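During the no-cost extension, the postdoctoral fellow (Dr. R.K.) reprocessed legacy sequence entries with the updated structure-token encoder. One reprocessed record is reproduced below for audit purposes.
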Amino acid sequence: VRKNQSNGFPSTYQRPPFVKDGGFWTITIYFTDPSKICTTGRTAEEFKQQGIGSNLYIQNSTRPEDSIIIPRDEAGIANSLWTKGLCFPMMGTHYWWNVSENLSCDKTFPVFLMYTGQQLVGFGWAFVADLSSTNYEHPPPMTYKMFMNPVPKCLLTSGVTSTMHFYLTSQPEKISC
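Re-encoded structure tokens follow.
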């Protein structure tokens, strides 16, 4: 995300996971343990077994080692601040970090998770900013209730949001509710 967004996005509450990178704010996701990436790396055998990776990590500071590991099994987030949203066809059940109806938009966590069949099948970005890349979706506020529960009131008046979905499966069309 380019620095100097007209609405000040990302707010200081969202830094981290946003980290300065030249003229941009970046979020980093890892698919293998970042402490290994930044030191010894994986063995050839680990790479053969895991491919690009076996887990999902969200970097939550300027240090890759301070990343949050996301449970692959939906049951693993049951006692956390991840809030279960709704299931959207071909996306799965969305989870949002610590969402409430009165959440301030400058405190939203910019990453969401998607599960189906009790398994992590994807994640995404959700930015309260109008980003112009054609890779972003801009869902209208009336659709938020289709994947969030509750919907923070601030989102209904905050202007354009930009989202992007990343799938951890080669067949997202088979993701069901």
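The mean pLDDT is 94. The first strand starts at residue 19 and ends at 21. The remaining legacy entries will be reprocessed before the final report is submitted.
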